[in-house]
Every structure is written in C-alpha cells, then in structure tokens.
Amino acid sequence: MSQQEFAIVTGAGSGIGRELTRLFLQDGATVLAVSLVAEELTALEAEMAGTGGTLITRTQDLSELDAAETLLAHCDAQGWTVDTLVNNAGFATFGDVVDTDLARIQTMLQLNVLTVAKLSAVFGARMKARGAGNILNVGSTAGMVPSPRFAAYGASKAFVNAFSYAFREELRPHGVNVTCLTPGPVQTKFASTAEVDTFEGKSMIKQWFATGHVATAADVAREGYDGMRGGKAQVLAGTGSGLAALVMHLLPASLIPRLVKNA
After folding, report:
1. Active site residue 225
2. For residues 217 and 39, what is the distance between their CA atoms, to the nearest angstrom?
3. Which of these is catalytic: 6, 153, 190, 208?
4. Which of 89, 109, 88 shows the shortest CA–CA distance to 97?
C-alpha cells in the first residue's frame, strides 16, 4: 500500500468512520473525511493530529439526491484521484413503520441506499478505468435478519449487502476490490440517533446497548479495514454477526420476523 493512497471516508466524524479514518492515516494515506456535522470534523482534526498521513475534512449532507455527483465534482476540481472509497455514512429509524416520520424514512433511504449506490458507481467507474481501487461498503447484519421495528433500516442494509456482492463481481475482473463489512450492534451514536435508547417497550437491541454487550467501533473498523486490505468479499464483525449469518442460511426470511419480534 502506497503512502500516496487517497481515501474518502463518509460518516467520518464518529463511530466506525472515525476509527477507519484513524487506520488510513496511520498507514500514511491522505483521507478526505466527510461528515454532516462540522463540529465532529473539528474534533476529528484535533484528535488525529500527529497520527500520520494527511487529513482533509469536508462538511456535506450526503442524503441529498445529488450528493454523489457533488462530491465527485469537488474531488475533480481539486485534482484528487480517489484510490479507496468507504461508504460508511448512514443511520437507522427504530419503531413500527406506521409510527415513524415518513420524511425521516425517506432521508434514511436516500443516504443508506441511493448515496451508497451512486458513490460506488461514480467513483467505481474511475477505478475501473484505471484498473485499480478499493471500495468498502458498511452494510449490517440487520440486512440479513428482517426484524420488526427495523423494517426500513434493515431493508436499506439488505440493499447494501446484496449490492456490494454483485458490484464486486462486476469490478473484480478490472482490478477493483469491493468489500462489504456487516457488523452486528456497535457502540456508536447508532442507538441514540435511532432512538433505541428511549424506546419504552421490550427490546433485545435496547438491552444489548444498555448492558454494553455490543462491539466497539475500533474493533469493527479494524476487522473491516483488514478485510478490505485482504480483498475479502464480506467481513462479519462484532456481537451476533456470526449468528445472524447462520439464521439467514437456516431459516426462511418470512419466519425470522416472528422469532425476533422483540428486537
């Protein structure tokens, strides 16, 4: 891996994205860290000072429909050739679909689905033309196990998972690697953003977060990073990821929601 590597990490201000940014910098890469929250990027710059590599930050709302085109145009204007793309930005909604704000569901789907697909497409096309590159998409075990209260979020991650594996096969003959990281629950802002922690009913997920029975962002980022460097198609990481994969293979998808109704 060259010290001249240029990587984009979306959702870089916190959680898995923050830790992936750290790993790229430690390996001497130049990282364009993208986040919606400017304050997170300011804190990131202070935290990563002296880590190595070169950190560049960009505040951008990636849920906007033209976000991918805008980010590509920005990189072109700066003369940056992107070697590695990490599609990490995303969030969840938690609760019954009919009780969830439709605008929030729409924003989530635009970010988790459309932006991931479009960023993969526009930067993947450049990588294909050069005959080299890496794309790391952050999916989820939620995309393997259809769960009540996570219906829309799980569907969005099911898209990321399936898209990544198929996209990998399209780009593999052209020297471009695509890896899908599929973690279980991770100790990030996920629970608070999705409002899992304020849910008043019985919830296995809420209990996991409350008791700390979830993976750390640093551990999951390391597994994903190493898996991408190793050219893996999928990286199962964190609490329950192996079990989720087993359930997916052993049980029909139509039955699973009944078994995890208190997720």
Report:
1. no
2. 19
3. 153
4. 109
